[in-house]
Amino acid sequence: MGKRPGSFYVLSAVFALFILFLYGPTLTIGILSFQGPTGGLTFPMRGLSLHWFRDLFEQQAVGDIWGAFRRSLALGLMVMVTTVVVSVMGGFAFRKRFYGSGILFYLIIASLVIPSILISLGVGLIFSQLGFKIHWATSGFGSQLTWTLPFGLLIMFAVFNRFDKSFEEAARDQGASPWQTVRYVVLPIIAPSLIGVGLFGFTLSYDEFARTLLTAGSYNTLPLEIFGMTTNVTTPVIYALGTMTTLFSLLIIGAFLLTVWILGKRRARLGSDAGKGV
Amino acid sequence: MLKNRHIQGWLQASPLTLVLIGFLILPIITIVVVSFWQATEFSIIPAFSLENYEFLFGSHVTYKVFYATLKYAAITWALTLLIGFTVAYYLAFHIRSQTMQIALFLLCTIPFWTSNIIRMISWIPFLGRNGIANSALQSWGVIDQPLEWLLYSDFSVILAFVHLYTLFMVVPIFNTMTRIDHSLIEAARDNGASGFQTLRHVIVPLTKPGIMIGTIFVLTLVMGDFITVRFMSGSQKANVGRLISNDIALLQYPSAAATAVILLITVLIVIGILLRFVDIRKEL
């Protein structure tokens, strides 16, 4: 640990600017959402009020945002649970290096890099050609999975690449069945990463726009509703909505990170009984 | 039978495989098929025809729009790489405590989990005609007239891309950098390398896989985008994604599908080239 080189201070300044660049705009609309009733879309602030937040609770001002919010929430939870379960199963499968796993791996990468609008267009076309009704919980749900599953699986690959197999061998040597090994040894060890997969599943679904555009049907999800508003709403009510949505996202992210942290603490406390003469 | 690892593997991967078949492979096949169909104003007609492609390749708009798409991708790539590398380098090599490293890294990644559309909207008070940037520049006496090109221009489109996607560079580059053995850097210093020489000849080459993964993310996200360009340019600029979404809005599905096929081929060629330089499975 020596003296900091000069470059440290330059780079610290660059980093601070980057953080300002990331968060500055969001903070600005946070401030502007408290505009007075006569205020516009930019500074100066004409008074300070909760006027625009109140507007969010009135149907005629903003349309059906609460319905959209409930749908996005339900869809986010569906996608989250499915992403965790399917990614874990996929992660276990890929450890076995089965025939054809290489092709499946490239399909996962393809799912990640394919332009979202192609999924939207393709799924929309299939449903209309087959005469199915597009709905956020069917076509929208499947389309979002093509975006959340690759993230979930990449995390699982990273987890299992670092997984120490001797834990499983020890469990087997002690007479655990394969299921017991998974349930009592592997899953507890990878639990914090599963929370990470859940976080990706929920937030990517909750904010997804392009893949839901043509697959949500007649009931909009929240991002679609917000985008619709940008074309015809010219008051700070859209900032109020943005601020509320961002706060909700931050709350969710905070809850996930807190859970990981608590799990880490618990593990540090209960993890090992080595040397305690148990 | 169930003891066979290949069968077990496929069984465990079956939900994944079903989702990918139903919502990735079948949609792509459908798009390819529909791209050969014909359309009238009111309906689409299953028939084999090359007219969508003939129209696409015969129109100078197509070339202009593909050029614009590649231009956005190239400029955004260069900027996100520059910023992303610098930020990742700072986090990996200048932050000494691990807790601080994790905290700052999370600070960089949290916006990724919030809404892209809100993050685009939040540039409006900055860039508008009477926005913060213009008022500040005017009050400092740098300009007399408000700058018109701040919002609804190539500038605002690229600014939004950089704002949204730099994280996709920071995360993989940081990930590879934290795995660089610090004794290599000490060895370089002991042999008399300057800070810049160490960066140029040791760190950059070892970080290449991370750079490649970040590049794949940024290029595909920008090339496939349609919403950022539409929103940040106030519908005044076009890229391939917008060409597709405009056709969809006009219910011209076969024409949209043909454009989508060409876009997909372009993206896959770019990814194919990049994947030659990196083994993703090894880097996770």
Automatic annotation (TrEMBL), chain A:
Residues 69-259 form the ABC transmembrane type-1 domain. GO terms for biological process: transmembrane transport. Its main location: membrane. This is Putative spermidine/putrescine transport system permease protein. PANTHER family: PUTRESCINE TRANSPORT SYSTEM PERMEASE PROTEIN POTI. It comes from the Bacteria. InterPro entries: Bact_Polyamine_Transport, MetI-like, MetI-like_sf. The chain crosses the membrane at residues 7-34, 73-94, 103-127, 147-163, 184-204, 237-263. It is a multi-pass membrane protein. Keywords: Cell membrane, Membrane, Transmembrane, Transmembrane helix, Transport. It holds the Pfam family BPD_transp_1. It is found in: Cell membrane. GO terms for cellular component: plasma membrane. Belongs to the binding-protein-dependent transport system permease family. CysTW subfamily.
UniProtKB/TrEMBL annotation, chain B:
Keywords: Cell membrane, Membrane, Transmembrane, Transmembrane helix, Transport. One of its GO terms (cellular component) is plasma membrane. Pfam families: BPD_transp_1 (PF00528). Residues 66-274 form the ABC transmembrane type-1 domain. The keyword Cell membrane applies. It is a multi-pass membrane protein. It is found in: Cell membrane. GO terms for biological process: transmembrane transport. The chain crosses the membrane at residues 16-37, 72-92, 104-126, 155-174, 210-233, 253-278. Belongs to the binding-protein-dependent transport system permease family. CysTW subfamily. This is Putative spermidine/putrescine transport system permease protein. The lineage of its organism: Bacteria, Pseudomonadati, Pseudomonadota, Alphaproteobacteria, Rhodobacterales.
